[in-house]
Amino acid sequence: MECIEEGEGLTIEFKRLAVSPGKIAREMSAFANTNGGVLILGVDDDKTIVGVDSEKEEMDYLTIAAHECIDPPLRAEFSIFNVSGLDIIVAEIRESNDKPHFVIDNEGEEKAYIRVGSSSIAASKETIKVLKYRSGKLPPVRLIIGEAETRLFHWFETHDRITVKEFAELTNVS
């Protein structure tokens, strides 16, 4: 009930029902690729508890989404709760150490999703690279910091911001 009262956000998503494994896979993969989260089936966006008609069918959709529509497959914990005589399903998806997780669509294309606020959005190529670096799937990036960058870092040790003119003077850029 605390999750429902809190409302949708970075780590909570409501769905009236799992329309299809592919669509529910987006939400699940986004949670795994971001901070983890809770997907609650049987609740409207306005926090109204509507319940699910068939717990088995919804659980099957969640299982198919986690194991067949997402690569690499996800582990999720599913629970059924009775609230005011209505059954809701709670799927807890932990933040993954095996990022990024891709959703495989009907054409075989793969897309990674992340959570931004209360939405699951397609991850950019850059975000996918960051996810791969963080999970150790790509070797670490080695950055070389030059003299201009060093001066800029020193500037921000004592200042909150910099103007274009100050930046140009600091880095000798014309």
How would you summarize what this structure contains?
The protein is an alpha+beta fold and 174 residues long. The chain has six helices and eight strands, in the order αβαβαββββββααα.
From the structure above, extract its key features.
alpha+beta; elongated; single chain; 174 residues; Methyltransferase, Cobalt-precorrin-4 Transmethylase, Domain 2; four-stranded antiparallel beta sheet
What can you tell me about this protein's structure?
With 174 residues, the chain is of the alpha+beta class. It has two domains: 2-134, Schlafen, AAA domain (Methyltransferase, Cobalt-precorrin-4 Transmethylase, Domain 2); 143-174, no CATH class. It has six helices and eight strands. It has helices at residues 2-6, 21-33, 55-68, 125-134, 147-158, 164-171, and strands at residues 12-15, 37-41, 70-71, 76-83, 86-93, 102-104, 110-116, 119-122. Helix 2 (21-33) crosses helix 3 (55-68).
Layout of secondary structure:
Blueprint: H1 2-6, E1 12-15, H2 21-33, E2 37-41, H3 55-68, E3 70-71, E4 76-83, E5 86-93, E6 102-104, E7 110-116, E8 119-122, H4 125-134, H5 147-158, H6 164-171
Helix pairs in contact: 2-3
